């Protein structure tokens, strides 16, 4: 069994000073005489004691920690965002904390309440809180939102534009009645896609049938697939790839041929989208780039290099990746 790590009490005893004096010597050395400060630092070095986040915060007002808050850590959509965010923070010397709110508005608010005193800032990926709460929190804690702007700032992935690309693709294949299996009711991105699809449908002279709100999970795919089939649509756009995976499974179980009887399009191009059968046509998003950019904006805000609580606004483009799950429309 290893020895316990040295504590501030150990440093104080070794240097012959009070604990409060040792704390000041390590966090605010200008407040005690230099001879005492040197003695404390030498004792700390000899014992292998390092100042923790709380000590750094006392001297600099910063903890050196930044949080990435996501609604579902098991969703592969967030894997690329995690990698991009972590790369930017590591390069800047910050520790990276991942917080999973499990699609809960209440859990998201609790996380922000805790992070207010334990982190220098946070990247909120696809936050579920209402706009007024996000605005309030952005004044209490440096925040950058990803896929939902606050006060006109944040990093946004153009999934509505990608959904329109998918609709145009299906229309070019002769589909005239197309379903959209939507995402969570609290999803800002889902609301934008519904608006974009309705406008594009009028232009393309096709009908879009909006279905659900569905959880962005594979398990919700069965209900979404049943609803799409019952709607008499010949093609369906899923809110994300996980939902599309579940739909493909359900169509296979029901004996519905994809794409012979029903075309399916996902969104995000997560790992596995090219491995399912049939390989999934989907909207590819620059996830690592989005995470990296969000972290850059947050660090700029923390360092006060830019004005405002949430940095700048940037929208990243998406593109359609055509695979085997889409084909010509079949009569229904």
UniProtKB/TrEMBL annotation:
Coiled coil: none annotated. SUPFAM superfamilies: lambda repressor-like DNA-binding domains, Periplasmic binding protein-like I. It comes from the Bacteria. InterPro entries: HTH_LacI (IPR000843), LacI/GalR-like_sensor (IPR046335), Lambda_DNA-bd_dom_sf (IPR010982), Peripla_BP_I (IPR028082). The keyword Zinc does not apply. One of its GO terms (molecular function) is transcription cis-regulatory region binding. Keywords: DNA-binding, Transcription, Transcription regulation. SMART domains: HTH_LACI (SM00354). Gene3D superfamilies: 3.40.50.2300, lambda repressor-like DNA-binding domains. Residues 6-60 form the HTH lacI-type domain. This is LacI family transcriptional regulator. It comes from Cellulomonas chitinilytica.
């Amino acid at each position: 069994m290893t020895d316990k790590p040295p504590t501030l009490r150990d440093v104080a005893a070794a240097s012959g000073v009070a604990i409060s004096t040792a704390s000041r010597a390590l966090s605010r050395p200008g407040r005690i005489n230099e001879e005492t400060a040197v003695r404390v630092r030498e004792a700390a070095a000899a014992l292998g004691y390092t100042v923790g986040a709380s000590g750094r915060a006392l001297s600099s007002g910063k903890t050196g920690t930044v949080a990435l808050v996501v609604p579902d850590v098991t969703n592969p959509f967030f894997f690329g965002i995690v990698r991009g965010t972590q790369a930017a923070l590591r390069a800047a010397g910050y520790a990276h904390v991942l917080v999973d709110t499990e699609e809960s508005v209440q859990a998201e608010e609790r996380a922000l309440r805790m992070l207010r005193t334990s982190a220098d800032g946070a990247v909120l990926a696809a936050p579920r809180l209402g706009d007024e709460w996000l605005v309030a929190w952005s004044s209490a804690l440096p925040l950058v939102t990803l896929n939902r702007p606050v006060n006109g700032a944040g990093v946004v992935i153009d999934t509505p534009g990608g959904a329109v690309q998918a609709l145009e693709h299906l229309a070019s294949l002769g589909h005239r009645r197309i379903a959209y299996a939507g995402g969570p009711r609290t999803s800002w991105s889902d609301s934008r896609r519904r608006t974009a699809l309705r406008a594009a449908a009028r232009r393309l002279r096709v009908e879009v049938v909006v279905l659900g709100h569905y959880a962005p999970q594979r398990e919700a795919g069965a209900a979404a697939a049943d609803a799409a089939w019952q709607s008499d649509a010949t093609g369906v756009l899923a809110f994300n790839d996980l939902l599309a995976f579940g739909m493909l499974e359900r169509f296979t179980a029901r004996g519905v041929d994809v794409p012979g009887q029903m075309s399916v399009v996902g969104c995000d191009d997560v790992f596995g989208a090219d491995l399912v059968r049939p390989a999934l046509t989907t909207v590819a998003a620059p996830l690592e780039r989005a995470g990296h950019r969000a972290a850059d904006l947050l660090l700029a805000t923390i360092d006060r290099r830019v004005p405002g609580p949430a940095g700048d606004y940037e929208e990243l483009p998406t593109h359609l990746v055509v695979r085997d799950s889409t084909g010509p429309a079949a009569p229904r």
